[in-house]
Amino acid sequence: MGQSTGEDFYELCDKYGILIWDEFFQPNPSDGPNPTDLDTYVANVRDKILRFRNHPAIMLWCARNEGFPPPEIDAALRTLMAELEPTRRYQPSSTDGAGVRSGGPYFWRTPREYYKVRDDYFKTETGSMSVPTLESIHGMMPKKDWETMNDDWAEHDFAKGAQHGDKYPLELAARYGAVTNLADFVRKAQLMNYEAYRSMYEGRNAQMFHPTTAVITWMSAPAQPSFVWQLYHYDLEANSSLFAVKKAGEMVHIQLNEATGELQVINNTAEALNGAVANATIYNLDGSVAGRHETPVNAAASLATTLGPVEIPASASAVHFIKLELRDGAGGLVSSNFYWKGTEEKPDDLAELNKMEKVTLEAKVNRSFGEGQQVVTVTLHNPTKNIALMTHLQLRDAKTGERILPAYASDNYITLTPDETRTITITAAAKDFGDDGAQVVVDGWNVTVATASGKGVSIAPNADADPEHSPATGLPFQTVGLR
């Protein structure tokens, strides 16, 4: 609504390749009156265009948020565009026109549902429930409310409405099993987050660019501590949703089409990918290999290439895993992806995951220093025959145990297959580290870690995030005294 007026915002978007949907000065029609001083309005628009049009990050100019401008403003803007911006697109409304559609949905859906594209080829607004980390929840509510879904949860958007907060706990329990306590709820919710937000983008990838062109998530972060519509929390800690979007948004990306079961390579670059190989490995619940497939890949530029179905052996366990890898002609890893799946008959029954053996990872940690920042490098190894699902790392001050935020991880909520090793870097401002150094804590679906240390940094389990370390409460709804 015209409020992006800082030069630094545009410079950062240019630097990081973030495209801007830039709107002028009109909110939703129900949120305020139309401008009546046409000359002043057009002068403001002219000033904004002249000030910022040199920024390549601006993708288009939009007249109005969630509605069409009055005819006289639309006509004036079209004249202005012809004069000042003949090469950029002008979009009258953010919700409609030329394949553009907004309107959500804004609630959690199964992955396959995100592949249904109708006439919303550019989906300008959609979102889902997005539960923050356990520590963020602890930080936004008093302890007395942690183990009961009550009005305090509703004040943080866990409520009826577009987000379907009243239905979400039932969907979570039906998908991943009954909830034992808050830690268990968060652990299961991170799986739900990752599934929804990855497929939100992969569902669009699957038909790129015929006919889909883009999707915008509602939203990056809410204006208050919340359980919904976020890639990172109010306190600046990312949950699994951000890393799911980061995974799906790779420039060259391998994915499982969760509506058709087909393997796809998404090439967002202007260069064809030739002579590559796609590998699909199917794992049983116990970590044993049920099957492997290798497919040659020649993927055209700016296109989704479908490679055929991923065959699941009849002998595979009811809940199984699919690990995908795309390697270039020299064998280098280009993209990887990991899915947990149910049977065709019961695709939404994943409760068997609760039977997975706990995995203790081995780790090495070190810390390096740069200009104004410190980088913690963590190398994790899975020495077992089991899968370490959704491994989560969190950076803390070694003395106080407080989280260091913001912290930027190269990846997170990762899965390690038997004997796999992964390295993750976490970067934060040097001023945010205490004199006693840093600690990385680890949790996950079925994951812990052996303690280890390096110079100025250590690694240890996140005991609070383990549901077994807290009493079983069932995390009930409070049904008395609700407003």
Summarize the structure in words.
The structure is a single chain. By secondary structure, the protein is an alpha/beta fold. It folds into 4 domains: 7-94, no CATH class; 111-248, Glycosidases (TIM Barrel, Alpha-Beta Barrel), CATH 3.20.20; 252-355, Immunoglobulin-like, CATH 2.60.40; 359-469, Immunoglobulins (Immunoglobulin-like), CATH 2.60.40. It is 19% helix and 31% strand. It has 8 helices and 24 strands. It has a 5-stranded mixed beta sheet with strand order 18-20-16-15-22, with no helix packed on it. It has a 5-stranded mixed beta sheet with strand order 19-17-21-24-23, with no helix packed on it. β13 (320-327) and β14 form a beta hairpin. α7 packs parallel to α8. The longest helix is centred in the middle third of the chain and has 24 residues, at 182-205. It is globular. The mean pLDDT is 95.
Average pLDDT score? 95
Can you give the helix content as a percent range? Answer: 10-25%
The CATH class name of the largest domain reads Alpha Beta
- Tell me the number of strands: 24
Query: What fold name goes in the CATH topology slot of the largest domain?
Result: TIM Barrel
Principal-axes geometry comes out as globular
Number of helices: 8
What distance lies between the first and last C-alpha atoms, to the nearest angstrom? 33 Å
In CATH, the architecture of the largest domain is: Alpha-Beta Barrel
Q: Structural class of the helix and strand makeup?
A: alpha/beta
**How many domain modules?**
4
Strand percentage, roughly? 25-35%
Mind telling me the CATH superfamily name of the largest domain? Answer: Glycosidases
In which order are the strands of the major sheet placed? 18-20-16-15-22
Sequence stretches where pLDDT stays below 50 over 5 or more residues = none
